[in-house]
Amino acid sequence: MMGGAGAGVLGIDVGGTKIAAGVVDPATGAILARETIATGAARGGPAVLADTLDLARRLLEATDRRVIRIGVGVPQLVDNAGRIRSAYNFDWTDLPVRERLSTLAPTTIESDVRAAARGEARFGAGKGRRIFTYVTIGTGVSYCLVIDGRPHAGANGFAIHFASSALHVPCEACGHVNVPVLEEIASGPAISAAYAQRTGRSVGGAADVLAAATSGDAIASDLVTAAARQLGPLVALVVNMLDPEAVVLGGGLGLAPGAYREELIASTHAHIWADACRGLPILPAALGIDAGLIGAALANCG
């Protein structure tokens, strides 16, 4: 852990399916050592925390840099005091996460979407933009507004959700009220579940459905296209409300080239209200899947 040129920061991106960690040079964003493991969220919060601690220890031992800080991004609500306030995927709300990691180095906890947005602001597709919106589409769907390089957290730290609440859409003909939740339609697990239900065939994840769509599977193609088209108006609503210079897409689905991203971009542009903004840049995260890891390392970095 000692030696080497300059100090490093350990960034840990704890996701619903995987935990990615790396020692990052905060001056350049370069990842100097890394390891990724499965989250195994179904085992519960204590098991996930134990694995995260073991992973952190291994990376601290593997690097020759002096690691001065740890930043952790989690797929949860994290308030402005750094307290985990939700239990989506796994429950860390009552566990001493920061305290246990702080035995290794001073630790900051951050919402994963804010972490990734910070990474893109510093080193990625948001660099040089005064106002942009980062939208992540993977296991879940969330967003973060970035102003002058800083993620906007909101009054409580909860300004990350826009696709998790049910919409109420009444039918004028029969009076039935549809209550769709876009995250349950357009996210990776939702697409995988819909494909399994329609075909009776289970798949490893949304990437398999995207591959099937590319290979000419009509059901997969219909599901991918429909999911992206339905999410587009909601992304456009974010644009209409916040008026960013660009939208940066992250997460497994947001980064995947092909039909999903193409349909999402087209649907978003079609529902942007201001004519002058219909050509708004909608870009994949330049840091790719590393945005969360690098951004977590930059948390509390100024």
Topology (SSEs and partners):
Elements lengths: L6 E8 L3 E7 L6 E8 L6 H18 L3 E9 L22 H5 L5 E5 H12 L7 E7 L3 E7 L2 E2 L17 E2 L6 E2 L4 H4 L1 H12 L6 H9 L3 H25 L4 E4 H5 L3 H12 L11 E3 L6 H8 L4
Parallel strand pairs: 1-4, 4-5, 6-11, 11-12
Antiparallel strand pairs: 1-2, 2-3, 6-7, 7-8, 9-10
Helix pairs in contact: 3-10, 5-6, 5-7, 6-7, 7-9
Count the helices. How many?
Answer: 10
What coarse outline follows from CA principal-axis ratios?
globular
Q: Would you report the number of β strands?
A: 12
Portion of residues in beta strands equals 15-25%
Radius of gyration: 19 Å
Distance between the termini: 24 Å
Q: Give the strand order of the largest sheet, numbering strands 1, 2, ... along the chain.
A: 3-2-1-4-5
Q: What structural class do helix, strand and pairing data support?
A: alpha/beta
The residue fraction in helices comes out at 25-40%
Low-pLDDT residue intervals, each spanning 5 or more residues: none
Question: Could you walk me through the main structural features you see in this protein, from its secondary elements to its overall organization?
Answer:
- This protein is an alpha/beta fold.
- It contains 10 helices and 12 strands.
